[in-house]
Amino acid sequence: KQKEKYLEAKTRLAQYELSSGLQDENGNYTIEPLPIWVDGVRNPLVVQDEKERAEAQEVINKTPQAVIDSINT
Q1: H/E segment holding residue 41
Q2: CA 56, 60, 62, 68 torsion: positive or negative?
Q3: Distance from C-alpha of 60 to C-alpha of 30, rounded to nearest angstrom
């Protein structure tokens, strides 16, 4: 179960950040970044993205090294 959660978290963090967009090797946006603020409040899509990324990072940080090693071998 830990392996599964770890791999899900790695996949989630591999996705681009909504507030940063996605650029090609020439620095051109292939996906434009979302605005952080919309009508004076933080963009709920960006807030959700940040929350999910933080949760994924926490899963990775708490995964025992032995589990990570078993995936990487």
Answers
A1: strand 41-42
A2: positive
A3: 28
Question: What is the C-alpha separation between 61 and 65, in angstroms, rounded?
Answer: 10
The answer to whether 8 and 53 have CB atoms below 8 angstroms apart is: no
SS3 9: helix
pLDDT of residue 9: 98
Backbone φ and ψ for 62, nearest 5 degrees, come out as -90, -5
CA 45 – CA 37 distance, rounded (Å): 10
- State the pTM of this model: 0.87
Q: Supply 52's token pair.
A: 């999910």
- Amino acid 72: pLDDT: 75
